[in-house]
Structures are given as C-alpha cells and as structure tokens.
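Hi, here's the filled form for the chain we discussed.

Project: internal
Contact: R.S.
Residues: 296
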Amino acid sequence: MDKKLLLFIRDMKVFYILARKLKEKRIIWSYLESVNALPFKNSLIVTDNEGMEKIKQSENYQNCASLYSIIDYEVYPNFTSLILNVLRVLYDIHEFSTLLVAIDPGQKDIGMAYFLDSNLIYTETVHSKAKVISRINMSAASFAPTEIEVKVGKGSIRSLRDILRVLTDEDSLISPIHIFLVDEFGSSKQNGIYIQNTKAFYPEYKKSITKDEQAAIIIGYRIGKELTASNLEFLFNKEAHSAELKHIQKLSRKISTGKLSLSRELANEVYRGNMTMEEAIQMHERKQACKDKDSE
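And the returned structure, exactly as it came back:
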C-alpha cells in the first residue's frame, strides 16, 4: 500500500469516531493541519466538501494534482461504508465487477471477509444473523457491484442452516446474490498461508484479524458449490447424526448447569434450526412441569 492516508476534518465528532474506527483496524493515518502542509507524496485525503475546495485551491495540489485522491466523508451513510471505500482507494481498486462476501458461520461469532473481485479489502466479526444481512446490504450499497457472491463455510450444519435461512429470505437482501457452499475443513489451521499471500492486505491490519475473520478469508479464496433449490432442500431436511444430537444434549446440560438434558426430539428440532437452544430448554421445562403436576 503506497498511498499515505491523511485526515483533514474540522468536525471533531466525525474526526474522533473515524480515528477510533481506523485505530481498531490498525489502519495508519496522519492528521493534515493545513492545506499548506500537503505533502508531495501519493496520498488519500479524507475530508468534507469544504475541505475538498480548500485542498484543490492549494499550491501543492495544483502543481501535482495526480498525487492526490480525495474522499468526501459526507457522501457515505455510515463510517463502515466510508472505511470500506477508504480501503478500496488505498489498494488502488478503481474498477471491479464482483463483490464477494465470505462468511464463517457460528452460533455467537460470525466472521466476514469482503473482496472486490479477488482483492481482500476488509474483515469483521458480527454477532447476529441479522447483522450479516445488514452488512451485506451496506457493502452492496457502498460499492454498487455488477454481481454479488456470498460464500458460506459449511463446517457446522446448524450454523449453516441458520445463515442460509436469513440469506434466502425474500425480504432480507436488497440485491440478488449467488450463494456458494464451501468446505471449511482446515480453514482455521491454514489461515496464515492465505493472509501472507494477500499482497494488497494492509500489513498492520493483519495483526487485528480474529480467528473467525481468518477462517472467512480462507472460505473466500476457496472454490465453492453453488447453492441450488435441491441442495438447499437437502440441507434443511438432513437428519442429525447421533453424535450431533448428543453434542446438543451436552450443551443443554451445560447451559442449564446440569438441571436438565434435552430429549432427542427437542435436540433434533434445535439441530434443524426450528428452535433455539433457549426455546428448547424452556419447552423441556414446561413439559417437565406438566408431568410433575400430573403425578401429584
């Protein structure tokens, strides 16, 4: 990454929030005190419309305008959208056709990685299925790609089903997408190889990536099988193996601190995604209460 990132922002609230979010991702920036201090260096300047006019009138800019790229933060609906486009310009990605969002599904932490064509530009961890949808919609609106692809790791069948339910809901996404299922085996162990081979990815940024984000990066680079009506139906109707049901029952005992263990019937409902673990435990408790009352 050869461009220097400069912030020329007079609104201290905007400056503080943006600076904090850039720091969270370890994106290095400098503050531009005055347009007269504009360096003779390939730079990206984040400012507002008034700041753009001042920069363009400065002597340094007029002498070497080709050195500078300027982003008006006011045109972006939120800071994440702004940072996505800051990274796009820093990586010199000016033409692309496909936005790829790779997802490492989990029950609590969901890793997401964003690519423009084959270029990785951003990663994050979200904590709800609804947030996955809002992030995909946000990135689609930010980049306006010709095509959107979503790759989902299929390590945990229950997590995969949960993600596919929200992705295939008719009201969830603002743009049509192609969904690919990716074998997730070994993604956690091999993440270092892929991140090191991602030449454009900001070296400081790599240090802040979580394990879930690393797994999402691997999923993004792997070839997937496109989701069809037939394999979607198979996934939703697939029966749970005994080991998977036992795992859910064990988890129910842990959550309830040993007070109960879900029946195989309820464990299977959790596996299928028809109810959450909490809902299944509540149903078990209600059934048990009815039995206790009848036996009195």
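Let me know if anything looks off before we file it.
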